[in-house]
Design a protein that fits this description.
By secondary structure, the chain is of the alpha+beta class. About 20% of the residues lie in helices and about 20% in strands. The chain has helices spanning about 35-45, 70-75; strands spanning about 10-15, 25-30, 50-55. The chain is elongated.
Length: about 100
């Protein structure tokens, strides 16, 4: 009897129309990238709503820690000038 190996998990991103961003639509398991693309097409674009599919092995994705969101996303000290709230609109410039 041979030992079975689990197929890798893939994250699927679909772009609905040209010019739009790819959006995460779900996950699937497949033995390789080619089969992952074919399975993604069958699962997530059955009604012809996709023009492009990306599949990425789940273990190739690196994420930030949700528990450290305050420290990770807060502005660095001394860089408050990056926030537009500190600027005022110039008078006499109608398009601003």
């Amino acid at each position: 009897m041979t030992e079975q190996t689990a197929w890798p998990l893939w994250e699927v991103f679909v772009r609905a129309n040209r010019g739009l961003s790819h959006v995460h639509v779900g996950s699937l398991v497949a033995p390789d990238a080619e089969m992952a693309v074919r399975n993604a097409r069958d699962l997530y674009t059955r009604r012809g709503e996709g023009v492009s599919i990306w599949v990425v092995p789940t273990d190739a994705i690196t994420t930030s820690d949700p528990d450290a969101k305050e420290a990770f996303f807060e502005s660095s000290e001394g860089k408050n000038y990056r926030h537009a709230v500190y600027y005022t609109a110039s008078e006499g410039v109608p398009h601003l």
